[in-house]
Specification:
Blueprint lengths: L5 E5 L6 H14 L3 E2 L3 E5 L5 H9 L8 E5 L16 H5 L3 E6 L2 H6 L4 H13 L3 E6 L3 H5 L3 H12 L5 H4 L3 E4 L13 H19 L1 H6 L1 E5 L4 H8 L6 E4 L6 H11 L3 E2 L1
Parallel strand pairs: 1-3, 1-9, 3-4, 4-5, 5-6, 6-7, 7-8, 8-9
Antiparallel strand pairs: 2-10
Helix pairs in contact: 1-2, 5-7, 7-9, 11-12
2-phosphoglycolic acid binds next to strand 9.
């Protein structure tokens, strides 16, 4: 089973419209004449989506190399939800992917597995492809709870989603202790967690679905560790925060994590 790797930039609360434009122009000029055997996604803040959509659906060269992601969506349709953005609004800006359940959303904004489940369903109703984030804290890992935490997040997060939905979902395994800390999981720790998550998906949806689903690793991915992580059999790409803010670094991660094909 060949799973196409997917590299997604999670810019978090960084880069307004003008910095988004600078990044995209620089990134696209760097990849001129090359194609990579992977998908590339950029998820900027909501307010930068119109600029990204303009650039990628305008006449900029190589624009089709990048797909647009959002960092969050509302679990509601429309109405009196101050500060929220719904999935149809995202579709208007050619958003195809949406990050759901990031550990910062869970820890800082109180998102529970039930809320994340509702967001995953809402995203699928609009035919968006969720990047569904899971991962344990250091205390949970050290307390021997790694597997039970992942099992709960996967089982409750995916409740009610169908096998057809699963074909459009990407899972991102991001150990919380590795996010933005400079500490990366060793490739063995990451591989073991990924294999476990795949076995959970197999238990819920069968081995075919489990073999097909892409599981990204996230947490201090950098140009220097991408190759080793991506060589693991169950790691199918990366969700990248800090190192995706600079075009050269993001591109080096993609290069080192894949085999570039010169057109
Ligand atoms: P990081 O963030 O690459 O800065 O560790 C990853 C993430 O939060 O998705």
């Amino acid at each position: 089973m060949i799973r196409k790797p997917i590299f997604a930039a999670n810019w978090k609360m960084n880069k307004g419209a003008s910095e988004t434009e600078d990044f995209v122009r620089s990134f696209l000029s760097k990849i001129q004449g090359q194609s990579f055997p992977c998908e590339i996604v950029i998820a900027p803040p909501f307010v930068s989506l119109p600029k990204l959509a303009d650039l990628l659906h305008g006449a900029v060269q190589n624009a089709s190399a990048i797909q647009i992601g959002a960092q969050n969506c509302s679990q509601f349709d429309a109405g009196a939800y101050t500060g929220e953005v719904n999935v149809l609004m995202l579709r208007e800006f050619f958003v195809h992917f949406v990050i759901i359940g990031h550990s910062e959303r869970r820890a800082i904004f109180g998102e529970t597995d039930a809320i994340i489940n509702a967001k995953l369903k809402k995203a699928r109703e609009a035919n968006l492809k969720p990047i569904f984030c899971i991962g344990e804290t250091l205390a949970q890992r050290e307390g021997g709870m790694l597997e039970s935490v992942l099992r709960t997040q996967v089982t409750e997060g995916l409740q009610g989603l169908t096998e057809k939905d699963m074909a459009e979902i990407v899972i991102a395994y991001e150990p919380v202790w590795a996010i933005g800390t400079g500490v990366t999981a060793t490739s063995q720790q990451a591989q073991d967690a990924h294999a476990f998550v795949r076995s959970l998906v197999a238990g819920l949806y069968g081995t075919d679905t489990a073999e097909r689903i892409r599981i990204q690793y996230g947490g201090s991915v950098k140009p220097g560790n991408a190759a080793e992580l991506m060589a693991c059999p169950d790691i199918d790409g990366a969700l990248i925060g800090g190192a995706s803010l600079e075009p050269h670094g993001f591109l080096e991660i993609i290069r080192n994590g894949t085999v570039p094909l010169v057109e």
